[in-house]
Design goal:
The chain is mainly beta. Helices cover 3% and strands 28% of the residues. The protein contains three helices and 36 strands.
Length: 468
């Protein structure tokens, strides 16, 4: 899945000051002056930071003693584990390159806390040296991980399958059997908090996001080109134990669903999930799902309590599906109005009431013929041989084009999708989720200050992630 993009980031090179922890044998960053992820730059081996016993200071900010701070680019040769009780801060502009082709795929396993503090001008970037999907594992958070913030972060080329030597497997995170790749980001602490905002996930071999617990907000992100025809995979996959607001995201070319909403994994100790999914734009999802054809836009199941409204679905393989054998909690869910557009006859058919498990409501807006009710994006291109059921990655056989960041999913002034949305969505975190680890950061220049509270914007009257 090649992607067309140009990231205009200015990478800062600051001195690192972090708590010296025991360095695992052989675990170092590679080449030149790249950081050791567990040590001070320069290897002074103390935690006093030039005499101070209360703060760790970089050119950007002061951090609590006991933190790890990554302030410059690095290439990782082996996986990194952030211990319980330790916070890793990654400063704006830092690029973390994960070496591909190593015996055990590289992972960042966060047993403590993680704060990726990118900005629009200087995002934090996780990438691979080969820039191909499946090149490294992902960011896997542990059961005691209290806080994770991904703000203005680019994550690409993740999703590799772990081995029995992988840190995620050894810590019994995500999966306890080796049967597929890890997600680009995974969170599992039902009492923890996570925020994913203004970020870009792309070209990941498995799910972009997979959550099995936690209080979270996911907004203003782009999720592009993920999954594989053999395993499927969702852009955002939510299981039991989650309380989440998910809004104003663009999902392009998710292999199976843009959003899978499920209470799989619920028990006496894991509560039912309650999620709000509103004002998202989903484009070209589900085309490559060959194995069982069970999804292609939004899938709800297993007593999930979901509010799914104001979403714009454009040439996705199916309309929203509810598992007929083990469906959503329909008495406590709200799954309309949403806007469904199809440019082909097959697309119109597969989002209609005659297709198994597809939900249809009178309050939805749906194409009744190919091209009917076009929402009129600002700039977007389809494959000339478009085939909504192509089940492969080949553009010449009708698969979606690689994501292009010159596309604009805003709506033109005469778009029929500019009205009809509802504004009474009751957000779970209307006043925002606070992150104490971010609050403890003292930025040395007020112009660099970042908020410690993250809040998904309220629902709008238009459909999709953008108005005009």
């Amino acid at each position: 899945m090649k992607r067309i993009y140009s990231i205009s980031s200015i990478y800062s090179v600051c001195r690192v000051a972090a708590l010296a922890l025991a360095v695992l044998a052989g675990l170092t960053a590679c080449e030149n002056d790249n950081i050791n992820p567990y040590d001070y730059a320069g290897g002074n081996g103390n935690n006093e930071n030039e005499g101070s016993k209360t703060t760790i200071t970089t050119a950007l900010a002061e951090y609590p003693v006991g933190s790890l701070v990554w302030s410059r680019d690095t290439t990782l040769l082996e996986s990194v584990e952030i211990p319980v009780g330790t916070s890793l801060y990654i400063e704006p502009g830092v690029t973390v390159t994960c070496k591909a082709g190593v015996q055990v795929p590289i992972e960042l396993v966060v047993l403590g806390n993680l704060y990726c503090m990118g900005t629009a001008e200087k995002p934090v970037v996780f990438t691979s040296d080969v820039k191909e999907p499946n090149a490294w594992g992902g960011i896997i958070c542990g059961y005691n991980s209290e806080e994770t913030v991904l703000s203005h972060v680019h994550i690409g080329y993740a999703g590799a399958t772990p081995t029995e030597s992988s840190l995620s497997f050894q810590n019994k995170l995500y999966k306890t059997t080796i049967d597929g790749g890890v997600p680009a980001f995974h969170f599992c602490n039902i009492n923890g908090r996570f925020a994913i905002a203004n970020s870009f996930f792309h070209d990941n071999y498995s799910d972009h996001i997979y959550t099995t617990g936690g209080n979270g907000v996911v907004y203003n992100n782009v999720f592009a080109d993920n999954g594989n025809a053999a395993d499927g995979c969702e852009a955002v996959n939510i299981k039991a134990g989650c309380l989440m607001d998910v809004a104003y995201n663009v999902v392009y070319n998710a292999c199976t669903n843009a959003f899978k909403l499920s209470n799989q994994g619920t028990s006496e100790s894991v509560p039912l999930s309650k999620v709000n999914v509103y004002n998202n734009t989903m484009v070209d999802c589900g085309w490559r799902r060959a194995r069982n054809k069970k999804g292609g836009s939004v899938w709800v199941e297993r007593s999930i309590q979901a509010t799914v409204v104001n979403n714009l679905l454009y040439d996705c393989r199916y309309g929203m599906k509810n598992n007929s054998k083990d469906g959503a909690d329909m008495n406590n869910s709200r799954l309309t109005p949403n806007y469904y557009y199809a440019s082909t006859a097959k697309g119109v058919e597969q989002m209609g009431a005659k297709t198994k498990d597809v939900l249809c409501y009178d309050t939805d807006v749906k194409s009744t013929a190919p091209g009917d009710k076009n929402p009129l994006f600002g700039a977007f291109a389809q494959s000339e041989k478009m085939n909504i059921n192509c089940e492969n990655d080949q553009v010449e056989q009708g698969a979606p084009l690689p994501y292009d960041d010159q596309w604009y999913f805003t709506l033109q002034t005469n778009s029929p999708a500019l009205q009809g949305g509802v504004t009474d969505v009751q957000r779970h975190f209307a006043t925002g989720l606070p992150f104490i680890g971010m609050k403890q950061v003292l930025f040395l220049n007020i112009a660099d200050d970042q908020d410690y509270r993250f809040c998904a914007p309220a629902a709008a009257t238009f459909f999709g992630a953008f108005g005009q």
